[in-house]
Design goal:
By secondary structure, the protein is α+β, with helices and mostly antiparallel strands. The chain has six helices and four strands, in the order ααααββααββ. A four-stranded antiparallel beta sheet has the order 1-2-4-3. The model has no long low-confidence stretch (mean pLDDT 90).
């Protein structure tokens, strides 16, 4: 897990610098302090990006950032480890304690951001942090399952999981 944590943080920082610039990333990092987790980082970047680009700009930017993180993680790991890497990374980023997969869908379970969103009276996918997770799942689904894309379809509040269906041509 330590290797995944370091890998994820390194990739996330590098890619975010290319989007919002070195100074903005350094500002976010300085506000967070040392020994920051992947989930603290992704949420702080999502907040900053949404502040800079507005709601829709934040959504699309974070979704693309999620796709790019997935792509980088797949490039750095052998294909037979992709499912494990996807699940470990989603956990490190705070999106899922675990991932459940079906033939045409994936569920992310027990997202740590849900409570933060609920406190702000936001539903799933109403904050740009959610779109980073969406893009990350999409990046993996395209390569692993041949999906053309991924669509968020629902949140099961009772079982604490969000469903993402694969879009196939």
């Amino acid at each position: 897990m330590e290797k995944i944590n370091e890998e994820v943080i390194s990739i996330l920082v590098k890619l975010t610098k290319s989007i919002i610039g070195d100074k903005a990333v350094e500002l976010v990092l300085n506000n967070l302090g040392e020994n920051v987790s992947g989930r603290q980082l992704v949420f702080s970047f999502a907040e900053k990006i949404q502040d800079l680009f507005g709601e829709k700009g934040g959504f699309s930017t974070m979704r693309q950032l999620g796709r790019e993180v997935a792509k980088s993680m797949m490039e750095q790991n052998p294909e037979d480890k992709w499912e494990e890497v996807m699940e470990l990374t989603l956990n490190e980023l705070g999106f899922a304690e675990r991932v459940e997969r079906e033939e045409n869908a994936a569920y992310i379970c027990k997202c740590v951001f849900y409570e933060i969103l609920d406190d702000r009276h936001l539903n799933p996918i109403e904050h740009s942090v959610c779109w980073a997770g969406w893009g990350f799942i999409e990046g993996f689904a395209k390569q692993m399952y041949g999906a053309k894309g991924v669509q968020w379809t629902e949140r099961d509040y009772e079982n604490e999981k969000c469903k993402f269906e694969y879009i196939r041509a």
